[in-house]
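Please check these two lines:
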Amino acid sequence: MTRRNLSLALLLAILSAGATYPEKEPPVADRGGKIAAQYQDVAKRIVDSVMAGNDAYAKLEALCLDVGHRLSGSRALEHAVHWAANTMKSDGQERVRLEKVMVPHWVRGQESAYMIKPHAKEMAMLGLGGSVGTPPDGITAPVIVVPDEDGLNAAGDAVRGKIVLFNKAMPPYDPERGAGYGETVKYRVDGARLAAAKGAVAVLVRSVTAKSLYTPHTGAMHYGDAKEKIPAAAITVENAEEIKRLTDRGTEVVVNLKMGAKTLPDAESANVIGELRGRTNPDEYVVIGGHIDSWDVGQGAEDDGGGIVIAMEAINVLRKLDLHPRRTIRVVCWTNEENGTRGAKAYHKDHAAEMPNHVAAIESDSGVFEPRGYSVDCKDETRRAIAVKQFGEIMSLFPKSFGTLGAKPGGSGADVGPMKEHGIVLAGHRVDGEHYFDYHHTNADTIDKIDPTSLSKNVAVLAVTAYVLADMPNRVGELPKE
């Protein structure tokens, strides 16, 4: 058995045994990996350059202050698309272009929520993206509080004619388990469909966050196969708790909900692409990026202005250092991730012929807090295991001041996800997630939440990772040829 076959057999054995992966991956010299030794000097050069000064914060400030929030279909998104293209052209990036995408055009309109009984009170709220509106005078009805779908079903006929409040609390952030987003977001997404089937007239959802200072969080919802479409809005954690406490005491709570929401015909937008062309294999691609759209609140700083800016600045730094890897690094600013992922679908379709030449794709869509490394995915489990080890060794290239960086199996992102079927190695750019959902989809997602030093560290991590993946003699997920 050759050394290469022995290595593959060893990896298969690890997989079948259900191996666990530590946050900090050890070097993989025993599996033929020489990444740390080969790229130590160039990684230091990149890191030193980024931390000495870069343009990421200035780029993000321009996006947040000059453009602001940018929902699909809005003129602001059109402004952002052209800003990104012009910025990459000014940086000297190659093959900068816009690729047309038709996107949904949902408009919020005027909206309000008032408690009528047991006392008059205006409540902070945000309609959910994709919701229908109410009649001009709104919908006034008693509120019934349920914790989840089981609670809704248990309420039975009591739901009919009521406004349903899904009061599902998001668990506190846990460093090991994460934010628990998936446990609670289902009621934002599907709550209206579930409640309408029981005869509800509208839905209120406790905002999907574990921490709140009276801040409502918006986000996408879907009606699916619902026969009746009812309005849906998010209210603050504080108001949700107040309504629950009142109803627990047997007090009737009546709310008036007004929403001018409507969906207009699809609008034209675009994915924005720019490249650092490879020196020997320019038609092979390592894709990095995030989504350029945001919700129509705040400035979209963490979600996902930071994500596109660190990708734009990563290749800008490499160009300034005259570092051209073997393969092309392609930056993609996807449009319409928030309420349709039309940009991701269009990229997958438009570049179908190129998919065999995509080596890896990295998405940054979790904010730009302190970097933590990468979660790695691939359709082929053996290749994924190899890739995890390789990403882990790349993470060993960074100084101790960057904290604990590692690689582990896990999800990548909504925009790179369609590429998985082609066997491409995908990765999610991971950061400290403790505070991401404090600001997620709110008016508080603004530039002042961005720490410039953390932003720079993310630029450095992405720049080094993209360079190594694009320059390695073998493709990521493959063992070196003997």
